[in-house]
Design brief:
single chain; alpha+beta; Beta-Lactamase; 5 domains; five-stranded antiparallel beta sheet; 15 helices; binds adenosine-5'-triphosphate; binds magnesium ion
């Protein structure tokens, strides 16, 4: 494969060197031709410009000193006009003066075929020993009489001589274009290198009847095509790694299975497929971790053993019962995992694909749900029991007040106060129960209206201050400098903030510090409640907003609470279209942040 790729690369380089050379030679020839025509034009133009001037000089010389003066003038004219030669022929066409002395007395050549005329100027083009020549002829006059013909020759630059002259500067003509194309070629080869490697691998695939997936390799990513190729190779690699297969077709099939496994593995529930006897054919990662094994360790094992059903004979009996074999069965069992008791809900569904029979098992950790259910039952039980105490107190004191004939006013006031505070206790209990039932039925609704945020915050602080003082904690408050109008359900926001501050006080030891911060912009309100208390363990943190959830921390168990405060707070905040978040570090403290839109969503 590497040899193929190198051959392709060599071919590309050769192509570029060849085309570089052709371009270089072509540009050299073109430059010579261009230089030649520019030079020729320049010389002809100079000659033509000076032709008239030379003729007038000669006519003047003739007027002053006859043909002898003309003869003397000619060398000066040749020098000035840069001509190859100059001559003057008499009206018969015989040279009477010439810069080449041997031509004097010879006839002027006639070049009929190559003669061109512009007015009284004639031009003849012919080849001489010194290369191509252009000769210009012009009649000379004296007092209106034709006295002879002036001729002047210009040598045209020879192609060969010019090429030689220019080629002596190779950097200009050959090296520069050659270098440019070579560099371009190298750059292109480099950038085509990955494509060449892909082509080479595709050629190998074309030559093979059963192409091997593991022989395909990724290339340096350069463009979308090579990126796409790399992706394909990686996917094939995964497919073949899954089962150790190496054919491309198998690898593709494996890849499909790999994708389905990926979906299964992303599910939080444990999923396993077994044969009719209960041997595991396939299982996802969640299943393996629920039974405390690796994925490889569960394949082929008896699911009853993996789920430790022998330790739960009643559950095992249900799964083994003849009547349940073709039906869906659900059972729950408790397992001790290193001191932690977890509850697993196991569901078994019959699977029939063609003649093949088996079961689909879904295993879910329902510890939290079971715990929440227990807590709820306990809460309702405790609350109903607690209702009795204030009620009987109220009855007893009310009866005493009604029946006692001689009771001083101080005593009467004391009894009334007791009745009042017991009624308040009742009210709080009933409020808790109501909140719970509203939460359960998802029937909490808001009663929004314009709110004076400053007064709301003051009410919250007044409410919480006595409990803070009782525990000799420090309450630090930060309030906005400016308040903007807000539209909220005032009572429910007070409940939320009192719950958060109540928790901060409850879960912070005496003399700890509680921070309550309020920030407001025109569009949002942010409350921050922070404490230096016991903190929340990372494993409890995601659950604190669940109903009846209380941290497993033994310090929490000692503090009374039912686990609905934060669930209620979250529900209220979300009904307003806001967000509540928590950050905490065990033994360092906790921070709750509530962000609300200034105008509630409902
Ligand atoms: P209640 O319903 O009477 O408020 P609760 O305080 O136990 O009872 P939540 O307010 O919902 O219930 O709190 C749930 C759990 O979150 C608490 O039991 C506690 O474990 C944890 N928690 C809440 N706030 C704090 C805090 N500031 N510091 C440490 N733990 C906290
Ligand atoms: Mg609470």
């Amino acid at each position: 494969m590497a040899a193929r790729s190198a051959t392709i690369r060599r071919r590309i380089i050769a192509c570029f060197v060849l085309s570089g050379a052709i371009i270089a030679i072509g540009s050299a020839l073109g430059t010579v031709q261009l230089a030649r025509s520019v030079l020729a034009d320049h010389r002809v133009e100079t000659a033509l410009n000076r032709l008239g001037w030379a003729a007038r000089q000669l006519e003047q010389a003739y007027a002053q000193g006859g043909i002898e003066a003309v003869r003397n003038k000619l060398p000066e004219i040749r020098r000035t006009t840069l001509a190859l030669y100059c001559g003057v022929a008499n009206p018969d066409g015989t040279y009477v003066a010439h810069t080449i002395p041997s031509r004097i007395g010879e006839p002027m050549e006639s070049h009929d075929g190559r003669l061109q005329r512009w007015g009284n100027i004639q031009r003849v083009r012919f080849s001489s020993e010194q290369g191509p020549v252009e000769e210009y002829r012009l009649p000379l006059r004296h007092r209106g009489r034709f006295i002879g013909t002036f001729c002047m020759a210009v040598r045209l630059p020879s192609f060969r001589a010019l090429s030689w002259q220019l080629l002596r500067k190779p950097a200009l003509l050959l090296a520069v274009p050659l270098l440019v194309t070579l560099l371009g070629g190298l750059w292109l080869t480099r950038s085509l290198g990955s494509t060449a490697a892909v082509i080479a691998q595709l050629e190998t695939l074309a030559d093979s009847d059963a192409p091997q997936a593991n022989r395909l390799v990724t290339v340096r990513p350069q463009d979308r095509a090579t990126i796409g190729w790399n992706r394909l190779v990686r996917q094939l690699g995964r497919g073949s790694a899954a089962e150790g297969t190496s054919s491309v077709a198998d690898a593709l099939k494996r890849y499909q299975e790999y994708r389905s496994n990926e979906v299964l593995n992303s599910l939080p529930d444990g999923i396993a497929v077994t044969d009719a006897a209960g041997r595991v054919r396939t299982a996802n990662t969640a299943f393996a971790s629920l039974v405390g094994r690796s994925e490889d360790q569960v394949r082929g094992e008896d699911i009853h053993v993996l789920l430790n059903l022998r330790a739960h004979p009643d559950v095992l009996a249900r799964f083994r019962d003849e009547h349940t074999l073709g039906r869906q069965v659900t059972a729950e069992l408790e397992e001790d995992r290193g001191g932690n008791v977890i509850t697993l809900r196991i569901q078994r569904l019959p699977l029939r694909t063609g003649s093949d029979e088996g079961y689909l098992w879904i295993v879910r950790d329902v510890t939290q749900q079971v715990l929440a259910q227990k807590m709820k039952t306990q809460f309702v039980y405790a609350a109903t029991h607690e209702l009795r105490t204030p009620l009987s107190n109220i009855r007893a004191y009310a009866e005493t007040l009604a029946l006692a004939e001689t009771l001083d006013t101080a005593k009467q006031r004391e009894f009334c106060n007791i009745i009042n505070s017991e009624a308040m206790r009742l009210e709080k209990l009933i409020e808790d129960l109501l909140n719970l039932s509203r939460l359960e039925a998802a029937a909490l609704s808001l009663n929004v209206g314009p709110v004076d945020l400053q007064r709301l915050v003051e009410e919250v602080i007044t409410n919480i201050r006595p409990t803070v003082e009782k525990k000799r904690q420090k309450l630090r408050v930060r309030l906005p400098e400016k308040y903007f109008p807000a539209t909220l359900d005032k009572d429910k926001i007070i409940v939320t903030l009192v719950n958060l501050l109540g928790n901060a006080v409850k879960y912070t030891p005496e003399e700890g510090e509680i921070r309550f911060e309020v920030y407001q912009t025109e569009s949002h309100i942010r409350f921050v409640v922070e404490d230096t208390g016991i903190g929340i363990a990372p494993e409890d943190l995601p659950h604190v907003f669940e109903k009846f959830y209380r941290s497993r921390d033994p310090r929490v168990a000692k503090i009374s609470g039912s686990g609905i405060g934060l669930a209620l707070a979250k529900e209220i905040v979300e009904l307003h279209g806001g967000r509540i978040t928590v950050e905490s570090e065990l033994n360092r403290g906790t921070r709750f942040t509530v962000v609300l839109p200034a105008v509630a969503a409902s």
